[in-house]
Amino acid sequence: MVAKKRGNQAKKASPGKKPAKTRKKSASKVPSRPVKQIRKVREMKKYLKEVRSRRRKVVLVPTMGYLHEGHLSLVREARRLGSVVVVSLFVNPVQFGPNEDLDRYPRDIRRDLRKLRREGVDVVFCPDAAEMYPERYQTYVDVTEVTRDYCGASRPSHFRGVATVVTKLFTIIQPDVAIFGEKDFQQLVVIRRMAQDLALDVLVVGMPTVREEDGLAMSSRNAYLSPAQRQQATTIYRGLRKAKQLLDSGERDAAELAAIAVDLLREEHDLVIDYVAVCDPETLERIPEVEKEAVLLVAVKVGDTRLIDNIRLEVKGARGRR
Length: 322
Ligand code: PAF
Prior knowledge:
Helix content: 25-40%
Distance between the termini: 11 Å
Structural class: alpha/beta
CATH topology of the largest domain: Rossmann fold
Number of helices: 9
Low-confidence stretches: 1-28
Bound molecules: pantoate
Order of helices and strands: EHEHEHEHHHEHEHHEEE
Strand order of the largest sheet: 1-4-3-2-5-6
CATH class of the largest domain: Alpha Beta
Radius of gyration: 20 Å
CATH architecture of the largest domain: 3-Layer(aba) Sandwich
Shape: globular
């Protein structure tokens, strides 16, 4: 799904014309050259100045590392959309609350680099915290309304940290396109709002959630789960699907749709619900009933691990807003 269209998007081939030869971009066909690693802001800017002088289209995939298939799907889309792919690996301390998992957040840069090399990524930006937030740092970005509820309510400074680091990455890298996963749905809405409000010249693209075979949304935090917790966590997606099935069978009442997911989640004793909400996919305002489209957002804690997921709810046959 694309946030806004810009003039510099790939042109469609005109009918009758012989299609230009396209470079094969599948991971297996990519010559495995080392990924360029850049740790300093100044070096990153210098590299990109040279890239831009050759009119290359830069696509950024911001991550906190410990990459899984979900991240790699963003990288593949980045390769499809642009000619220079930058992946940032930075566990952003500012988006973690005081009692959250910053210290134990999984990190394995060697493994990440191996994966990115196989995907043909051009450059990895991996600054340390002092490079991104040097001494006397004091500038933050606050997106107000869409951060108020859901994860914003449970993690009060989280989106301020996300908006700040993403703005800083956009400023340093000045990507034409930036790609984020839809699993972090509220985050995607926050970043789109921010890019629009600040008139940032970047196309924000959201990519579908990648799931394990049993439906659990891929997340670096899944690594925290014990086998028993991992099993219980599959209830999240089952709950979302049940709500969607209920919608497809004709139910439009948001409270009923949320309730069917809640009932299923409550069957798991170690699972604590933070929120289950049906809301408008653009404004994130709660809606009483689904007329055309909505998103069902869920956050739960399984033991100490907080997991989020969502599903789009679309009334078949109803015309969407876009
Ligand atoms: O989604 C993430 O991994 C992070 O929140 C992001 C967007 C890379 C900012 O640190």
